[in-house]
Amino acid sequence: MSNNDDKQTFRPLDELSYEQARDELVEVVKILELGQMSLDESLRFWERGEELAAYCERYLDGAAQRVETALQNRGDQSTGEPGDAAE
Asked: Does the chain have fewer CB atoms within 10 Å around its N or its C terminus?
């Protein structure tokens, strides 16, 4: 986050790792909890927090899918049969 002309600007989400986005979200929440900003500033931070939360959720969903796929592949290899034996 950087300050230009007293207006808060934020790094694009695609430049952030999951950890950076999570840490920024924590900071946004702390800033909002202080409640010492104008309504416009508060709205900008709230919108950024929503963006960061959605980004983190998508990232975690993707990670969960990768784990599930890896477990599925491991199960397929151990049985020697394609597909899930439970289906």
From this structure: C
Number of H helices, E strands in the chain: 2, 2
- Token digits of residue 84: 């899930």
Banded model confidence at residue 4, pLDDT cuts 50, 70, 90: very low
Q: What is the pLDDT of residue 87?
A: 47
Q: Could you tell me if 21 and 52 are in contact, meaning their C-beta atoms sit under 8 angstroms apart?
A: yes
Task: At 46, list the tokens.
Answer: 């709230």
Q: Is 6 left (phi over 0), alpha (psi -120 to 50) or beta?
A: left
Handedness of CA 10, 15, 21, 24 (dihedral sign): negative
User: What angle is formed at CA 27 by the lines to CA 12 and CA 17, rounded to 5 degrees?
Assistant: 40
Question: What does pLDDT average to over the chain?
Answer: 87
